[in-house]
Structure prediction request, 290 residues.
Amino acid sequence: MNSQLAERIRQHSASFSKGQRMIARYIEEHSDQVAFMTASKLGSTVGVSESTVVRFATEIGYSGYPALQQAMQEMIRSKMTSTQRLERTSRNIPAHRLLDEVLDQDIDILKRTKENVDREAFYKAVDALVDAKTVYVLGAGSSLALATFLAHYLRLVFDTVHLVEATSEATILQQMVRIGEGDAVIAISFPRYSKKAVKTMKYASSQKATTVAITDSPLSPLAQYASHVLLARSDMVSFVDSLVGPLSVINALIVTVAIKKKNEVADTLRKIEKIWDEYGVYEKVDEKGN
Prediction:
């Protein structure tokens, strides 16, 4: 169990009611299961009321049960293997509920991202990126999809954008050999954190480049080498990383940087539209849909 959570339970144990002691014991023995239980489910499993579970969470210093549950999820998320994630989902969520559960979880992630995002940090990161000469974007594992999306749109904003191939440390450093002051690196990583992304940020920082980390926590290993940290909620949906939170922050980042460079971007878009029309890049559909 998370050492911080264990310490909170220990510090408050003297004042626990009988029901709260039962909850504490169950959490200590089954933390991986409790992390994904509702307050109602935990209460019925232990044999106490839902309100007792909620009071337990506030008693040990959390704002409520969701905050306690979130702390437990973050604790085990970086430790669970993909097989364990898949097994947990099949055990805890009925098959006919999977669509609703996944959609509800993504909605919750977006809400928590909006509530917790540091707006000052976001706009400082935008200002730092606007004048970058060359932008490098890196994402390993599932974050590669986010990095590819980000790089695609940033190429409409900046003259030079490199999507860094994270096949090996040597390959990464070779692609970034010319990086220096005035350039920028955006690295994206969520639990389980990519060592390649961390080492990339460390190298870019040593070369005095602007470093922007898109990650989930100030304690993320990327954060220690970042000039700017953009936090977004991420979570597990079975063995799949739910990245709707960071994708939404990335959308906002692209739009805001583009608005800051509106004249250049508008000129680029006009030229692209002309090329698309001239070469028939897209199929035209009439008003009737034919």
In short: The two ends are 60 Å apart (CA to CA). Residues 113 and 119 are 11 Å apart (CA to CA). The chain is about 55% helix and 10% strand.
